[in-house]
Amino acid sequence: RGYDDGLVTAIAICQMLDRNPDSSMVDLYRALPLTFGTPTMSPHCADDVKYGVVERVVSDFQAMMRDGAA
Q1: pTM
Q2: What is the domain partition of the chain in residue ranges?
């Protein structure tokens, strides 16, 4: 989970620098819009429970789609 984020980010930065040869990393950084992040929530759920939860959620959404609620 997330192990390749650094590599993908490094490639994206290299591409941005290549497209903007007259700009430094600081220039590109300052041009980015202000964003906000939130922590990832990963509550523990045992596998034998997790699969049942997913099946119920899928079933509920399918019923909503069938009934025109979504």
Answers
A1: 0.44
A2: 5-35+45-67
